[in-house]
Design brief:
Number of strands: 23
Largest sheet: 8 strands, antiparallel
Structural class: alpha/beta
Radius of gyration: 24 Å
Strand content: 15-25%
Distance between the termini: 36 Å
Number of helices: 19
């Protein structure tokens, strides 16, 4: 059927609720809106599905949620009766309809004879990830659109190891979903198989992550005097972040206006702590009370944004890369100081994350492993290392403000643990009479200044994803020797797992395939381009190494101009 026919079939279906009927009738004269809603099905990828809240096959609504859950239910049933009894744990954040979608998912599972553990209130990604392992469930569901604008919601699926479901298992689930052509045929049922998640799960999580602290003496001495401002940006991080910081006796002041569970995120343009603007109320409060540091978490509390004072006393918002290298340096330093740095230790990062990580890891004698973008790939490495016992996972991070230390708590990025570690890191540097900003400058001086920037180009329309992928595909055979002042040393085609050197020789990349092209430049700089997997944006990553910040900024401007001319 064409999209108009599908639209009419939804509008005339007796299973469509009154809200849905009213919404679809309101766009009856808007062919473009109807095409967007019904011209495609909301894609269920390796990170689950994410879309604008509304009615239609290409939108996030109770019918697309039920259909996706039925696909997951079929997968669980295929694993046998034990998997069905182990069940699935479900959490949700503060977004619009998150609680409704979570209940709908639980009811579909229950109707299929599968135990569904449902949190009684909002809980963040890391606590959902932990609950999967603590309860021993076969899978987990998180209703969230992470840092996306307020119009969005999403559905993430987790495997029994607490990491986002593997690409292989996801493919099986997608196969079951695609067999469901009638969205209204999936029914839910309220029965005894829907259970509340025990409060003991929360207590156990806090106890476990408390073991990840590295500087208890510094925290004991400086924590009560530290002035830290925290904002949950209306999200699910408020209770867990405040709980763990108070547990450490860290002095915290919250941005009261942003503790409210507001699905419109009315005090910010977007609830993404990667942007300084999202932390603006926290920074204003910090200036007012003379605070030292500002933290902000996104709606599902898997990302942490940080602002610190520079050498002039002004607040600067750190990038995800800067927080990542500060945490990496701090964790490795403290483990080495305490003679607890494992000989087989490994750090894992996405390949678009700062090139400076390699210099730091090399200096500490720690292996660094690159994976594709998406924290699920870091989770896959943790699973691999635990199974083989050959390596010990120390730290994983992504440039998009996602961090994970150790394996005690979550198997996804964890802003609760990151808040704890960043708070104690501030205490530690205060304890040894150094500022966090001063330490960052020392890192740059030691390993050479690196400027990391991420540029996004937005695509619109129903074919946005296809157009972005086609652009990236076109670059794979396009020859280039240099981008302005930097020569190209090699080109990595991650979709073919091939690294092509400048002399024409090829090497195989031992990494999961993904659609991205990565240009290795001389002196350790790089440019990488990839389509976002969660929103219609083409992402271009620049990592520029130079003698100082001024030189790096100039080099970046020239490289950006050259690259944007190259891709046109």
């Amino acid at each position: 059927m064409d999209y108009q026919s599908i639209y009419q079939s939804w509008l005339n279906n007796p299973g469509l609720n009154e809200e849905g009927k009213a919404e679809l009738m309101s766009v009856a004269a808007d062919a473009k809106a109807i095409e967007y809603r019904f011209g495609a099905e909301l894609e269920f990828g390796t990170a689950g599905m994410r879309g604008i809240i509304g009615y239609g096959t290409n939108m996030m609504n109770v019918y697309t949620v039920r259909r996706a859950t039925q696909g997951l239910a079929e997968y669980v049933k295929s694993l046998g009766e034990d998997a069905m009894k182990r069940g699935v744990v479900i959490s949700y954040d503060t977004r619009r309809k998150s609680d409704e979608f979570a209940r709908a998912a639980a009811e579909v599972l229950a109707a299929n004879g599968i135990v569904a553990y449902l949190f009684d209130d909002v809980h963040p990604v890391p606590m959902l990830s932990y609950a999967v392992r603590h309860l021993g469930t076969i899978a987990g569901i998180m209703i969230t659109a992470s840092h996306n604008p307020k119009e969005y919601n999403g559905y993430k699926v987790y495997g029994e190891d607490g990491a986002q479901m593997s690409p292989e298992a996801t493919a099986v689930v997608v196969g079951f979903i695609e067999k469901i052509t009638d969205y209204f045929s999936v029914k839910g049922e309220k029965n005894k198989l829907i259970k509340s998640v025990p409060s003991s799960v929360d207590k156990s999580y806090y106890k476990k992550i408390s073991k990840l602290t590295l500087s208890p003496q510094a925290v004991k001495k400086e924590g009560k005097n530290l002035k830290l401002v925290y904002t949950p940006v209306h999200g699910s991080g408020y209770v867990p972040v405040m709980t763990i910081l108070k547990k450490l006796k860290i002095n915290v002041t919250v941005v009261e206006e942003q503790t409210k569970k507001d699905p419109d995120f009315s005090t910010v343009e977007v609830p993404n702590p990667e942007f300084k603007e999202t932390l603006s109320m926290g920074i204003a409060l910090a200036k007012k009370i003379g605070a030292d540091v500002v933290f902000g978490t996104d709606p599902d509390s898997d990302r942490l944004g940080v602002a610190i004072k520079d050498d002039k006393g002004e607040f600067v918002a750190l990038s995800g890369n800067q927080v990542g290298i500060l945490l990496l340096d701090y964790i490795l330093t403290r483990l080495r100081d305490e003679q607890k740095l494992p000989a087989n230790g490994v750090v894992v990062k996405s390949f678009v994350t700062t090139g400076m990580a390699k210099a730091i890891c090399d200096d500490f004698g720690v292996e660094l492993v690159d994976v594709p973008v998406g924290f699920k790939f870091i989770g896959e490495k943790i699973k691999e290392y635990e199974a083989s016992g050959e390596k010990t996972f120390i730290f994983g991070f992504e440039e998009s403000c996602g961090y994970l230390r150790g394996t005690e708590g979550s198997r996804d990025k964890d802003a609760v643990v990151a808040s704890m570690l960043c708070a104690e890191m501030v205490c530690y540097y205060t304890y040894i009479r150094q500022s966090v900003y001063g330490r960052l400058m020392d890192i740059y001086a030691k390993y050479q200044y690196t400027l990391d920037k991420n540029i996004s180009i937005k695509f619109d329309g129903l074919n946005a994803m296809k157009e972005m992928n086609a652009l990236v595909d076109s670059l794979k055979t396009k020859k280039v020797e240099k981008f302005d002042i930097y020569n190209v040393v090699a080109v990595r085609d991650y979709s073919a797992s091939v690294r092509r050197l400048a002399d024409g020789t090829e090497e195989t990349l031992n990494i999961p395939k993904t659609n991205a092209v990565y240009y290795e430049l001389e002196n350790g700089s790089f440019i990488c381009v990839r389509p976002s997997g969660t929103e219609p944006k083409l992402k271009i990553y620049y990592s520029v190494r130079a003698k100082d910040e001024e030189a790096a900024e100039k080099a970046f401007d020239r490289m950006r101009s050259a690259f944007e001319a190259f891709i046109k």
